[in-house]
Structure formats: structure tokens, C-alpha cells
Protein 1
Amino acid sequence: MDLQNSTFRWPVTVYYEDTDAGGVVYHSNYLKYFERARTELLRSIGVSQQVLLEQNIGFVVRHMDIDFLQGAKLDDHLTVITTISELKKASLTFCQEIANPNGKILCKAMVKVACIDNQRMRPTAIPQSIVLEFTSSDR
């Protein structure tokens, strides 16, 4: 299973609402950018979180390590780069980076996401259809 060669890129523009009084992206907004990119990665392989919710399946962040390297600023055009570094029965680990147009990494994170049964609030196996999408050689 070669997940490292599958990279997903999602564009982000920094809006006024994303910044602090100095025009620099407020730290918690990087988490939003990472979350949006993970959601869009799922959409890109045909996974609807609404459908998963109807099946009582959810993905929740279990652990995150984040490194803020340099601040992004108002009107910056950024790219969130996402790869899956580990796929287990009930969890995924994502490597995510936010880069500026010159390719400079501004923020990076390792995000472990657990698949849960929303009714029982307990871990459950990632649906096989999703596992197959992540492990197919066509990606």
C-alpha cells in the first residue's frame, strides 16, 4: 500500500476574517484550512460526509502535532498539501502542509483521525469502499 505517492492539493485564499489585528493569519485558522482540505480530499474520491453521517459514521481528530513556521498574511494565496501517511483499520494519519506560491512551507501538521460510530461514540472500521479508494493504484 503506497499512500505516500498520493498527494492532494487544495487552494486557500487568506481573507480579512482569517487575520488578527496585524493582518497575519490567526493560528486557529490553520486548523480550519487543514480540515477543509481533508474534507475536499474525501469529496475528490466520491465520499460524502453527509452520507456517512446518515450511516452513523464520522471522522474525528484524535491527535494533532502542528508546527507554525511562518505567518501567512491577508490576501495570500496558499495551497494545503495533504498526504496519507498511515491507514489502519479505524484510523488515518494525514501529513499536511500549507505552502505559499513559492513553495515555502508556512505550517505543517500530522493529524490522526479516528473513524467512529456516531451513536456509540466508539471506534469503528473505516468503510471498505473508502479504504479501496485510498489504496487503489489509480490514485
Note: Strands lie at 7-13, 57-68, 77-87, 91-99, 105-117, 122-123.
Protein 2
Amino acid sequence: MEQEKFMKIAVAEAKKAAAAGEVPIGACIVADGKVIARAHNTRETKKNALHHAELLAIDKACKKLGGWRLFMCDIYVTLEPCPMCAGAIVNSRIKHVYFGAKDKKAGAFGSKFDMNEMGLNHIPKITSGVLCDECQSLLTDFFKGLREIKK
């Protein structure tokens, strides 16, 4: 299935984040069936609150396409976007958001609240649960490992 193919790329990015000691979240952006950008969290290594996987991928996609309107693009992300990333997705006009695991603490496309119910000028289509178990396991294993280190 095409959704799983692209989510596996986001998962590979999340694994890069984990290997660097970052929360394992990865994203990729697809246009016309081709990956045009991919990224993973670098908040800790770059010491920058804006370095979420989605924002970095959106930045790369804008540079690649030469504009800020990504209306022909889909984004695949391993964890439901937070409010900041959901806002960037809406503002960049991304067509479709596919995410793996839900984020009950900060998910902005249905878990904590739904950005699409805010009456904004763009409403992306949302598909959740793509490779959900694998995406959730990355996060669970990462935080379990951190707790064991602290013991």
C-alpha cells in the first residue's frame, strides 16, 4: 500500500532521531508520488524549539518547489502533529496529512483538539493510524529507555 511505503520513510527518519537522542518523530512530504522532503526531530541537538520533523520537512519542500504553497503535497508523520506543526500544515496548504500514532497530550488533528474544526481557510484531509503500532513502539521504546537510564 502506498501509504505504508511513505510512512516507512517517515519511520526511518524517526529512527535517525532516536539514534541521535531525539524524540523519534519523522516526516516526509510527497508530491506526485515522489518524496520531495524528509526530516526528523532535531530540537535537542540543534537547541531549537522549532526543529520539529514536520516544520523541517515543510521548509525543505518549500525550498525544493520554490514557493510556500504545498497544495499538491501530502505529509506523512509518525506522530500526530502538535498545534505548532498543525498550524504550519494548514498555512502551507498541505493537501493530506497521514500520521501513525495519536498524541493524547498535544495532538492537534483529533486527539487533544482538532485544528480542522477552527474554521480556518484551509482544511487538510486527515488519515490516522498508518503503521500505528510501529510508530507507537518507537516512542514507547525510546521513553522506556530514558526511564531505565535514570534509574
Note: The chain has a mean pLDDT of 96.
